[in-house]
């Protein structure tokens, strides 16, 4: 470790330790007292309408943002004028926290209730570089029958083959458009980053974007449930991204002891280590980053990241 990194990394460890042991437990107890949607201003100054029963909302209130370490890693690494597609935008956590990194962010969210909350959050923060589209993207124009998950994450339901309701959830009929054609219809001529977070639908999204990706060669981010899907399923995804290289953002393992995690954070200042892989292991990959070439990877990783958050 370089001497110049010792003090910032040590400060990061102190802040993270205080956050995990003192601040976050206090916030969880406070959140437990909430029973209705409420307005919250985060430590970064962003405004969210939060539902205490939703997991993403809980993370924003307790930790300051959802998937914060991933977003912090992305900040400051894109070139001026960059454009992003946020496919499966949910309530806008990613778009809002990355709004300063892109000239335009196009959010796609077909679920009416989630889209309403997304719209409220973008308007509350007066972010005019974020465009909202109440549609899903796929490999053809279609109507998706989607079983809503009311407990914990409205956006984390599943597609179904019939429209029979259940006692605990309702079936939504969501509009889906062929991704490449819809993007062209919007007049989007530059794409630098695509984030895909759609339950059980990302293969169809990637197939629909194959031509768009071939022209723009953006960095692509997606999740992969390696314990539920095998290498052959991963191969279908990678076939939509020919010549791309795939990287996992590795942090201290969840199974590591508290001391081992502190040592990791001290060595790396909280930043992940990017590890290239071709075949996934039988585990969850929260944020795979796919790069179109070694040159793009080098430019991305060598750009100075944003300063570590104090949250």
TrEMBL record:
Keywords, in A-Z order: Methyltransferase, Transferase
Quick check: keyword Transferase in the entry? yes
Example of a GO MF term: methyltransferase activity
Q: Which domain of life is it from?
A: Bacteria
The alphabetized list of GO BP terms reads: methylation
* Record carries keyword Zinc: no
Residue ranges of every copy of the Methyltransferase FkbM domain listed in the record? 86-243
Its recorded name reads: Methyltransferase FkbM family
């Amino acid at each position: 470790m370089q001497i110049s990194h010792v003090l910032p990394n040590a400060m990061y460890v102190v802040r993270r330790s205080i956050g995990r042991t003192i601040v976050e437990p206090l916030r969880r107890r406070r959140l437990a007292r909430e029973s209705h949607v409420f307005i919250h201003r985060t430590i970064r100054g962003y405004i969210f309408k939060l539902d205490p029963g939703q997991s993403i909302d809980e993370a924003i209130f307790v930790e300051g943002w959802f998937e914060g370490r991933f977003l912090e890693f992305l900040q400051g690494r894109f070139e001026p004028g960059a454009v992003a597609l946020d496919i499966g935008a949910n309530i806008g956590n990613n778009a809002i926290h990355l709004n300063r990194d892109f000239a335009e962010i196009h959010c796609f969210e077909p679920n009416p209730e989630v889209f309403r909350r997304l719209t409220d959050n973008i308007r509350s923060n007066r972010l005019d570089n974020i465009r909202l589209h109440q549609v899903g993207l796929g490999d053809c124009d279609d109507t998706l029958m989607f079983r809503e998950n009311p407990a914990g994450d409205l956006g984390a339901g599943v597609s179904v083959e019939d429209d029979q309701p259940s006692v605990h959830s309702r079936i939504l009929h969501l509009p889906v458009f062929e991704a490449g054609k819809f993007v062209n219809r919007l007049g989007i001529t530059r794409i630098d980053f695509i984030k895909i977070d759609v339950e059980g639908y990302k293969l169809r999204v990637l197939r629909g974007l194959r031509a768009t990706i071939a022209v723009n060669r953006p960095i692509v981010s997606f999740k992969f449930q390696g314990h539920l899907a095998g290498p052959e399923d991963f191969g279908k995804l990678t076939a939509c991204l020919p010549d791309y290289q795939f990287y996992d953002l590795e942090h201290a393992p969840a199974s590591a002891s508290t001391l081992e995690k502190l040592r990791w954070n001290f060595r790396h200042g909280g930043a992940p280590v990017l590890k290239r892989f071709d075949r996934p292991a039988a585990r969850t990959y929260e944020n795979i980053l796919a790069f179109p070439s070694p040159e793009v990877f080098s430019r991305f990783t060598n750009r100075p990241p944003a300063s570590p958050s104090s949250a």
